[in-house]
Design goal:
Layout (H helix, E strand, L loop, with lengths): L1 E2 L66 E7 L3 H17 L3 E7 L6 H9 L6 E2 L6 H6 L7 H7 L8 H6 L10 E7 L1 E5 H7 L12 H11 L1 E2 L15 E7 L5 H10 L18 H15 L7 H6 L2 H6 L3 E6 L3 H8 L5 E4 L3 E2 L2 E13 L6 H14 L8 E2 L2 H9 L8 H6 L6 E3 L8 H4 L6 H8 L5 H5 L2 H10 L1
Parallel strand pairs: 1-3, 2-3, 8-9, 12-14
Antiparallel strand pairs: 4-12, 5-12, 5-13, 6-9, 6-10, 7-8, 11-12
């Protein structure tokens, strides 16, 4: 197995606090993988170089059974568990088609454009890569990965057997599909049943039939200071919190996008247009809500507290009562606190209804590949014909959800209500900002300083977002 010396980008990584009282770096926060899936490195992108020979308009020749021989290379990324799961898929394919050899590589191409560009420049791209939905649009538009429309049309591939939200995650703003979805993560509400029982509170309804106002009220009652006083006690000491009501990923879109969407807002327009919408009244309301949870109620974990110990581990340790997160949280609980009494619920509703976001991992063909037909056969086999568990994801193929997800052992009770049903909500989407120069949009030249003002309580949401789109619109339009 050939390994490239690359740095895995952060997934749900808590931001690195350069100085607790100063600037917080807004790291790229994508989907978590395996049992943990977070690092603290920051990814940058340069979009000045493209590959040549994208197949958007090229003819596609049919791959026949007799032609199933040859060599491919595949580059995977992630935790040790993630890599092992991908290697298992590769091994199953080569067992089914022994005349095909696949070189298994590790590296961050397809989640970090700069790594792909280095490989493109060296003419050393693998045949198959595993993109995250945050890079589908840019890598497709630059010709790093193949437009799969000609292959899908030629072979009459029926994408309706895949979860629609996962297909949307691999579809660029031009309407073309650039990858086949492997699986996805969706944000849900984890909660500690023992802490709810202790507070005398009913559990969050599994179907999401509660509101963010309910969450704020519960969070106050579930927050405690060092003297055991709850957040709704007049004598509560907000400077001595030892138990928090809520964790919602400080500075990460995984923490704010679901609330923003539920309130009818978004960072960029939901119709896919390159339009900044983060200064809307809905956005102001959402970010003020988050700021108030952290700094008025002291019921949500702040960026500084998260830096000291990540909120996901605090939840598993019983220090946090509710956590907005994805299914990768379950192995953390199983490993850290196997006896914890907990469950999951679909996320609550806001002014516009219930909403969540999906992070999608997928199989794609590099435009530089000289073995595109054989690579396409692998994609079809791994996605449609023989989907296997990979990267701890919810399978994108609906036929595999029951056997590979809903029957997993030692899972929370309301698995289907929380993780499967919400994927069909109208407001469950791939984050719209992924399609518009995402990495620069999230950088210190973009949203990061604005979010820092809100999350560090140095300005109200209204003041921090005032004029934001005048600054961000040129970045979004690039």
């Amino acid at each position: 197995m050939r390994n490239y010396d690359t740095t895995r980008p952060p997934f749900y990584g808590r931001p690195a606090l350069r100085a607790l009282a100063s600037v917080v770096v807004l790291a790229l926060a994508l989907t978590a993988c395996g049992s943990d899936g977070s690092t603290d490195t920051t990814t940058t992108t340069d979009t000045t170089t493209t590959t040549e020979g994208s197949s958007t308009d090229s003819s596609v020749t049919e791959t026949t059974a007799a032609a199933l021989s040859g060599s491919l290379s595949l580059m995977a990324w992630g935790s040790e568990e993630d890599l092992a799961s991908i290697e298992a898929v590769v091994d199953a394919y080569t067992a089914a088609f022994p005349e095909v050899e696949i070189e298994f590589l590790t590296g961050d191409c397809a989640v970090d454009l700069s790594v792909c560009k280095q490989l493109v420049a060296a003419n050393d791209m693998p045949d198959i890569v595993i993109p995250h939905n945050s890079v589908i649009d840019i890598e497709g538009s630059l010709g790093v990965i193949e437009n799969l429309d000609p292959y899908i049309e030629r072979d009459g591939v029926d994408l309706s057997q895949l979860v629609p939200a996962s297909v949307a995650g691999v579809t660029a703003t031009n309407g073309s599909v650039y990858a086949l979805p492997m699986g996805y993560h969706i944000e849900v509400m984890y909660y500690n049943k023992a802490l709810f029982d202790e507070a005398g509170l009913a559990y969050p309804p599994a179907d999401g039939s509660y509101t963010y106002d309910d969450v704020r009220d519960w969070a106050l009652k579930l927050t405690k200071d060092g003297s055991g006083r709850t957040g709704d006690d007049p004598d509560f000491d907000g400077n001595d919190v030892v138990q928090w009501g809520l964790y919602t990923w400080p500075l990460s879109l995984n923490g704010y996008d679901p609330i923003l969407l539920a309130n009818g807002g978004s960072v960029t327009a939901l119709d896919g247009s390159a339009t900044c919408t983060v200064d809307s009244p809905e956005a102001v309301k959402t970010f003020q809500y988050i700021q108030d949870l952290m700094w008025t109620d002291h019921s949500a974990v702040t960026a500084a507290v998260d830096q000291e110990e990540a909120g996901k581990y605090r939840f598993a340790d019983g220090q946090v009562a509710m956590l907005m997160g994805a299914h990768w949280m379950t192995p953390i609980i199983q490993n850290q606190s196997p006896d914890m009494a907990y469950d999951v619920a679909a996320l609550p509703s806001g002014d516009a209804g219930n909403a969540s976001i999906v992070n999608v991992h997928s199989w794609a063909i590099a435009s530089q590949s000289e073995n595109k037909d054989l690579a396409w056969h692998f994609l079809k086999w791994a996605t449609l014909e023989n989907p296997l568990p990979a990267m701890g994801l919810i399978p994108a193929n609906t036929s595999a959800i029951e056997s590979q997800f809903l029957t997993l052992p030692d899972e929370p009770e309301h698995l289907e209500d929380a993780f499967i049903v919400p994927a069909s909500w109208e407001l469950t989407v791939s984050p719209p900002e992924f399609a518009h120069n995402f990495l620069e949009l999230q950088s210190q030249d973009g949203l990061a300083p604005i979010m820092e003002q809100i999350y560090l309580d140095s300005a109200s949401a209204a003041d921090a977002l005032d004029g934001a789109c005048a600054k961000l619109q040129p970045i979004i339009e690039q």
